[in-house]
Design a protein that fits this description.
Elements (H helix, E strand, L loop, with lengths): L2 H8 L5 H9 L2 H15 L14 H21 L8 H12 L7 H14 L2 H12 L5 E4 L15 E5 L4 E5 L7 E2 L10 E10 L2 E11 L12 E5 L12 E5 L2 E4 L9 E2 L5 E2 L9 H29 L20 H36 L6 H29 L11 H8 L9 H21 L29 H28 L4 H7 L1 H26 L4 H21 L1 H6 L5 H18 L3 H6 L5 H4 L10 H10 L10 H21 L1
Parallel strand pairs: 1-5, 2-5
Antiparallel strand pairs: 2-3, 3-9, 4-8, 5-6, 7-8, 10-11
Length: 667
């Protein structure tokens, strides 16, 4: 153990494992997760290879091999992908580290689309095939020319009453499905999103089960063109693909018909709620909040541990070089990301519970929670993924040049989490979806109608001002939450008034909306920021834990809220709720909390419980022995297997010899 990092752990003011139990939602769950991880790490079948030195095809083949070994192990344990979903996720995370499991979409979007969107009769046909892996599937929605804009999608599913079949077709080049994971080479089936046309009328996007490849030899079926879209920033192990359909026929009962149906004669029955088809997407977006929090926790763990062993420069001339974590500027890079990771993980739990509550209500025919849940999950997906992408880059740069190396694991982690800003809905569009709900809520507030409990912040007195007069006042969560509420209220009402002004001038709704994207995006961001601060605070207060653990968690909540004010100071000042003098108090309190977090920093990232084999980072090693292992890692690179590289004999030697001959001829 590196003595510097050992000393850091001795400084901790709380029990690390107590915080780990909170993040896992119970000691039993932590112990189960650790047993599963140990089972993977101790099994020679799961021996990890260095993926940084693999090309795309090698990564793809290696990942599939690992996944199939995992499936066999799952069967040995008697698990199934419905009842043991979380245990299987833990296993996959241990196997793949920061990389996305190759068959991830089979057990998420594909399974969930069937579960949420198909009837009980359809479940009998498809669920067993999915859970037994007799078929492998994905979810194909995004097209080459259309992604988040569902109404613009071009793929058609036209009902033929004479055969009781749907005819799926890609009418243009841009209508090809493009980007779905596993689509290129792996899957046999897909849930395909297409425009439903029956009796000459277009009923918009619906979902259909389509077989893509032969169950005998895995070749593409007639009328189907499939392929991989090529190398990407990340996801090197996943065959993101394209799909072109040429008048492909499927039986009528392969439409997802839980909420809307096409009857044998072609008549259409609409769903009881227009947004029920969003269920799968809402579930995925809800889960993303926690997932990106975990991604940020990986980056925070690496950068914090490295900062606890890296020494550089002088604070006092003639004295030993200090740890870089002793520099306040380094703390300002690390500590906000640690707090944000905790905020997103705990907010993700809350959003997941909200979704489960909605599903229970929906089974009873109650769908009133869906509009707010849909808008909240869309906005939080954008807010948290954008924060995570930026946070990971800050953490990478905080490691200096070593953060650029694949040995740090930052390239893999960034490649895995950066795409979250565009998949499952591009972030700008997601925030604008949230804005639509906010504008409806603002209109209700103007009319004096009843608002949902969380949206009641729109009713705050706009003339009220913050009463804080000393730095400690900004440790009071009521004070902080009121500040965030006033900021959100002002951003929402400003957007509403600007749009109303444009409409009164005779502009149509689309133009008025487009003219005010600046305000709308800011409003949605402020709304989501308030939601996270509020959820983070409520989660910490509801947790059953030791007082010393709650103390450090409260510090993280306060610090996260203060950091948000400083990073968005203009919006807090514009509202008039906080003054310039009060902002100085916020800065002083923020700096004072840096000193509170400093002795606990390593323990806080240790509580994420990311074992070395799972983290996959030389810089983030638990023992802190970075330099000797960086050297060992570099020497293992394929290019170092020979003292003289093949390129010398192929290219460099002839080049040098030719130059030498040229010089000699001149002499």
């Amino acid at each position: 153990m590196n003595p510097d990092i050992a000393k850091e752990r001795e400084k901790a003011e709380f029990d690390t494992v107590d915080l780990t139990y909170i993040l896992d939602r119970g000691r039993d769950r932590t112990e189960l997760r650790r047993r599963i991880e140990s089972m993977v790490f101790d099994d020679p079948q799961f021996k990890k290879e260095e993926i940084a030195f693999m090309d795309q095809v090698e990564r793809f083949n290696y990942s599939i091999k690992q996944e199939l070994v995992a499936i066999k192990k799952i069967r040995e344990l008697g698990w199934n992908i419905v009842d043991n979903f979380e245990e299987i996720q833990w296993m996959r995370e241990a196997i793949h580290g920061a990389a996305i499991p190759t068959m991830h979409l089979h057990t998420t979007m594909f399974l969930q689309s069937v579960s949420f969107q198909m009837t009980e009769e359809q479940h009998k046909k498809w669920l067993a095939a999915i859970t037994n892996y007799t078929i492998i599937g994905t979810y194909a929605q995004t097209e080459l020319g259309h992604g988040t804009h569902l109404r613009g999608m071009e793929t058609t599913a036209t009902y033929d009453t004479s055969t009781q079949e749907f005819v799926l077709h890609s009418p243009t080049l841009t209508s090809m499905k493009w980007w779905p994971g596993n689509l290129g080479k792996l899957v046999t089936h897909a849930i395909v999103a297409a425009r439903l046309i029956t009796r000459g009328k277009d009923y918009g996007i619906h979902l259909f089960m389509v077989q893509l490849r032969s169950m005998k030899d895995h070749s593409s079926l007639p009328g189907i063109e499939l392929g991989d879209i090529g190398p990407k920033l990340g996801y090197s192990n996943v065959d993101n693909g394209f799909l072109r359909l040429e008048y492909v026929r499927i039986p009528r009962d392969q439409m997802c018909m839980k909420f809307s149906q096409v009857h044998p004669d072609g008549t259409y029955s609409a769903p009881p709620h227009s947004k029920l088809s969003y269920n799968s997407m809402v579930h995925i977006r809800s889960g993303l909040v926690k997932r990106v929090g975990i991604g940020l926790s990986k980056g925070a763990t690496i950068a914090t541990r490295y900062s606890a062993v890296r020494r550089q420069s002088e604070l006092i001339p003639g004295r030993p070089e200090p740890l870089i974590m002793d520099y306040q500027s380094q703390q300002m890079k690390l500590f906000p990301q640690i707090a944000t990771a905790y905020a997103f993980i705990l907010t993700g739990f809350q959003l997941g519970q909200d979704f489960l509550s909605y599903i229970a209500e929906a089974k009873e025919g109650e769908f009133s929670a869906l509009p707010e849940l849909h808008s909240t999950s869309a906005g939080l997906k954008a807010f948290t993924t954008e924060s995570t992408k930026g946070g990971l880059e800050v953490l990478r740069m905080s490691c200096g040049g070593h953060g650029f190396s694949s040995a740090s694991a930052f390239p893999e982690i960034y490649g895995a989490f950066s795409p979250t800003c565009t998949f499952e809905g591009e972030n700008t569009v997601m925030l604008l979806q949230t804005a639509r709900f906010l504008m409806k809520s603002a209109r209700q507030a103007m009319k004096g109608a009843k608002l949902t409990p969380f949206m009641s912040y729109l009713l705050l007195n706009q003339h009220e001002r913050c009463r804080a007069s000393k730095p400690d006042d900004f440790l009071d969560m009521d004070t902080l939450l009121l500040a965030y509420s006033h900021r959100a209220r002002r951003m929402v009402t400003t957007s509403f008034r600007c749009i109303e002004a444009d409409l009164k001038e005779g502009k149509n709704n689309g133009i008025a909306w487009n003219n005010n994207h600046l305000h709308l995006l800011a409003a949605s961001t402020a709304h989501c920021h308030l939601f996270v601060v509020d959820s983070f605070n409520k989660a910490v207060e509801a947790i059953q834990c030791e007082d010393r653990t709650r103390r450090i968690l409260r510090v993280l909540v306060q610090f996260y809220a203060l950091d948000g004010i400083l990073k968005n100071k203009g919006e807090f000042l514009e509202s008039g709720y906080i003054t310039v003098d009060q902002l100085d108090l916020v800065s002083k309190q923020f700096i004072s909390l840096l000193a509170v977090i400093r002795p606990n920093a390593v323990a806080l990232v240790d509580a994420f419980d990311l074992r070395d084999l799972k983290l996959g980072s030389v810089l983030g090693r638990y023992d802190g022995n970075v330099y000797e292992n960086l050297y060992k890692w570099a020497k293992s690179a394929p290019l170092n297997k020979k003292d003289v590289a093949d390129a010398y004999h192929l290219h460099l030697k002839p080049f040098l010899e030719e130059n030498q001959r040229r010089v000699q001829s001149r002499l």
